[in-house]
């Protein structure tokens, strides 16, 4: 694939060229070197994709499906099929519809493909394909950045019991939103900012957690394409939200906005993964929520200040080139900070940052053994059901271990290049 350029003829996200002219016979004799050299990540990624086809199929056939939200999703979209567009009347067994319009359209398609939502077996295979497609776009970013060694990708895939469960045994909407997010990130990294903006906004319309990437994305917009182009991209995002929500906005705008974009929703303490050690009275208190929000904003501001000092913003005389490692770092950190200070994390929320963890950890200066250990402990925390005081505490310890080093160590690649506009 030929490298894409911006409309000014320059790549705004700098990628590392891949080496594909490899003698596979020689590689088989040198596997230890392959699994530690990021230049060979594409080989390991291909192997893992093939392996995941078989692994996902075995999971679908051998492990029983667990009903949690699928029937409720189908009941919610069935209400739309029956002509109800007012969000206050759309609900399922687990409660009211609380996701934006993009969720409705995606699950409407799934409703018809799965025989009115009754054939879960078909849905499981579709989510298996969704997992493989997501892995492809994740691996595409990792193989281009070449910061994460291949063995970390192997560890990520082969230890991800909870992630496989979320995709093919639970059928949550979180994986769908994450898929469109990573497709958008690939387009952004190819300097296709408008298409990326449309896809990013559609991901938000499936589940709002994608907004956690927004602060980092805004910085990248301003750094790479300037205020004018940033305005166009943000306008596209707004137009997508308007079009996606239009039928529901025309029916009852207040109901749609208050239900689909409810930022003040209170979660049940019994399902929390990250705050089990906090008393329920404190967990549901508004003061606790405001403290977490304040900490979230403070840490984001610290990172934004550091990024601005290191990379600067766009000016009329320069076009800034951002190394893909730093492109991913800024986005992944933005999301990670939101997760660290989240009011509550449920088990399916693990997918919100699972695919970003290798890059975040290999952006620190910890020993590789410690990095793998942290990944392993995180997986154990997310696989402890129900959550315990110990599992929640260890989850926060792991988060703080990562966050503290990211704050101190900064971005993985000290590369920032500015080019004068041609006369």
Automatic annotation (TrEMBL):
GO molecular function: dol-P-Man:Man(5)GlcNAc(2)-PP-Dol alpha-1,3-mannosyltransferase activity
One GO CC annotation: endoplasmic reticulum membrane
Keyword line: Endoplasmic reticulum, Glycosyltransferase, Membrane, Transferase, Transmembrane, Transmembrane helix
Membrane-topology annotation of the record: Multi-pass membrane protein
InterPro entries (UniProt xref): Glycosyltransferase_ALG3
Catalysed conversion reaction: an alpha-D-Man-(1->2)-alpha-D-Man-(1->2)-alpha-D-Man-(1->3)-[alpha-D-Man-(1->6)]-beta-D-Man-(1->4)-beta-D-GlcNAc-(1->4)-alpha-D-GlcNAc-diphospho-di-trans,poly-cis-dolichol + a di-trans,poly-cis-dolichyl beta-D-mannosyl phosphate = an alpha-D-Man-(1->2)-alpha-D-Man-(1->2)-alpha-D-Man-(1->3)-[alpha-D-Man-(1->3)-alpha-D-Man-(1->6)]-beta-D-Man-(1->4)-beta-D-GlcNAc-(1->4)-alpha-D-GlcNAc-diphospho-di-trans,poly-cis-dolichol + a di-trans,poly-cis-dolichyl phosphate + H(+)
Biological or metabolic pathway of the protein: Protein modification; protein glycosylation
EC number in record: 2.4.1.258
Localization of this protein: Endoplasmic reticulum membrane
Transmembrane segments: 40-61, 97-114, 120-139, 193-219, 231-250, 287-308, 320-341, 347-362, 391-411
Pfam families: ALG3
Enzyme class: transferase
Alphabetical list of PANTHER family matching this protein: DOL-P-MAN:MAN(5)GLCNAC(2)-PP-DOL ALPHA-1,3-MANNOSYLTRANSFERASE (PTHR12646:SF0), NOT56 - RELATED (PTHR12646)
Name of this protein: dolichyl-P-Man:Man5GlcNAc2-PP-dolichol alpha-1,3-mannosyltransferase
UniProt source species: Caerostris extrusa (Bark spider)
């Amino acid at each position: 694939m030929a490298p894409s350029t911006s409309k000014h003829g320059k790549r705004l996200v700098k990628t590392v060229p891949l080496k594909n002219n490899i003698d596979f016979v020689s590689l088989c004799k040198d596997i230890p070197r392959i699994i530690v050299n990021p230049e060979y990540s594409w080989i390991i990624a291909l192997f893992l994709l093939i392996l995941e086809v078989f692994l996902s199929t075995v999971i679908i056939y051998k492990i029983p499906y667990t009903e949690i939200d699928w029937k409720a999703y189908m009941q919610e979209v069935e209400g739309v099929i029956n002509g109800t567009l007012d969000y206050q009347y759309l609900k399922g067994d687990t409660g009211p519809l609380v996701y934006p319009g993009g969720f409705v359209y995606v699950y409407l398609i799934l409703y018809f493909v799965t025989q009115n939502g009754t054939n879960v077996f078909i849905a499981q295979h579709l989510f298996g394909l969704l997992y493989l497609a997501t892995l492809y776009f994740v691996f595409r970013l990792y193989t281009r950045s070449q910061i994460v060694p291949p063995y970390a990708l192997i560890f990520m895939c082969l230890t991800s019991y909870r992630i496989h469960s979320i995709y093919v045994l639970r059928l949550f909407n979180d994986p769908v939103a994450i898929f469109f997010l990573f497709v958008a990130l690939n387009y952004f990294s190819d300097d296709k900012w408008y298409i990326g903006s449309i896809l990013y906004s559609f991901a938000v319309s499936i589940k709002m957690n994608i907004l956690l990437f927004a602060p980092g994305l805004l910085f990248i917009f301003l750094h790479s394409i300037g205020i004018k182009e940033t305005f166009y991209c943000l306008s596209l995002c707004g137009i997508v939200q308007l079009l996606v929500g239009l039928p529901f906005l025309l029916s009852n705008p207040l109901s749609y906005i208050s239900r689909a974009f409810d930022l003040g929703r209170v979660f049940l303490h019994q399902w929390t993964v990250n705050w089990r050690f906090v008393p329920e009275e404190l967990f549901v208190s508004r003061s606790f929520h405001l403290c977490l929000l304040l900490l979230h904003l403070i840490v984001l501001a610290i990172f934004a200040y550091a990024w601005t000092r290191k990379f600067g913003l766009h000016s009329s005389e320069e076009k800034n080139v951002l190394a893909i490692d730093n492109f991913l770092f800024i986005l992944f950190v933005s999301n990670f900070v939101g997760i660290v200070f989240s009011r509550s994390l449920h088990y399916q929320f693990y997918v919100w940052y699972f695919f970003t963890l290798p890059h975040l950890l290999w952006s620190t200066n910890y020993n590789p053994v410690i990095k793998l250990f942290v990944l392993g402990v995180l997986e154990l925390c997310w696989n402890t059901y129900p959550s315990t005081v110990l599992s929640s505490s260890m989850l926060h310890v792991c988060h703080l271990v990562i966050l503290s080093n990211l704050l101190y160590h900064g971005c993985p690649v000290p590369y920032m290049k500015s080019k004068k506009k041609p006369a």
